[in-house]
Amino acid sequence: MNPTSRSHPDSLRQSGIPRVGFVSLGCPKATVDSERILTQLRAEGYALSPDYQGADLVVVNTCGFIDAAVDESLEAIGEALDENGRVIVTGCLGARAELIRATHPQVLAVTGAHAFADVMQAVHRYLPPPDQPFANLVPPQGVKLTPSHYAYLKISEGCNHRCSFCIIPSLRGDLVSRPIGEVMAEAGRLVDSGVRELLIVAQDTSAYGLDLRYRPDFWEGRPLRTDIETLARSLGELMAWVRLHYIYPYPQVDQLIPLMADGLILPYLDMPLQHASPSILKAMRRPAATEKVLQRIEGWRRLCPELALRSTFIVGFPGETDADFQQLLAFLQEARLDRVGCFPYSAVEGAAANALPDPVPERLKQERLQRFMEVQAQISRARLAERVGRREVVLVDQVQDDCVIARSQADAPEIDGNVLIDGAWELSPGDFIEVDITGSSDHDLTAEPVTG
Ligand code: SF4
Description:
The protein is an alpha/beta fold.
């Protein structure tokens, strides 16, 4: 079971206060949803149980993006039913209530993604809140599932694109942005509570504000336009690293690079590109001007040489020929991205791509995946090796007896690499320190603190 609560006072256990267990699955966006539900539960006076046995009821926040995630979610629901018996399901897989009920008819209620009010209503129905809420037990920044020195900050929900392999828009709906004043207020509370790195997430971060027609809002008495550039600039005023995830390759990304060059936000872009062959990109219903992407990356690097680029790709999409795949490898060689994830295409129930002809045989998909990863491994290794000898600021994640695990500006938590510092040092998670990079491997760097 996932960690649910930082504190579980025994006094609450003894006093008949309703206790909720929580299982949080899926991506950082789902983590933010979980944190919101947990915060509300806490505010209403529920206690959070770290185990199934101590809970009166368990909420499972599911993921339903690909088949493997569906299986994992169904398994987690089954485990919660076996261990506790009273289970409410929410999250992306909630959009497929019939599947959940067919597999696990005993669940108490099923609510969908982004259905905050519905899940709270279901909890109230099956486990009423106490008369005396303990709102003072909720920290100002809310309940967080991440370590206390970094936090995900969700700026919008849903997506206006219709990539043919993706069912997110049908699960989570069209883009709905949060007003910029509200996002900035939450960011301020997080930083005040000790967060040193804000990870900005959304289905499509760069579209932020489009649905609101970039309407101005207020933060600390100042009018701010609700758009990604203004948000990034304003977040840059807070004393924290600001890292942007899930940027769609729109032209307006160009406007963010000067903010990185000026040190306002981290020189880091997580921009899923998915493929490089124009015909496959077209079949994916994605922007297909690969040449322009290469030119833009070159321009970005000229303006901000420190820029670290992360992307994800899909191989074996229906209709992908050898020539398409070669084009993808050639793109990789030219773009020299720092970090890359690659997935073999897998059909997702309800996705438009399922109707496309010419599926790629499974064996060929796996072969291409392997070749892709070999090519990228060499590039990533070379990119890391280029940093040996440099002096960089890193953020400490963990302090062990004989080693400190930190991250550089180029590394997002959980998905990128680490900077490993040998020896025992008087440091704490959340400290920023200056280091000299002394070595590199396939994924990580080694470093020594700058002393004196
Ligand atoms: S941009 Fe992302 S979330 Fe939106 S449809 Fe495409 S893959 Fe799905």
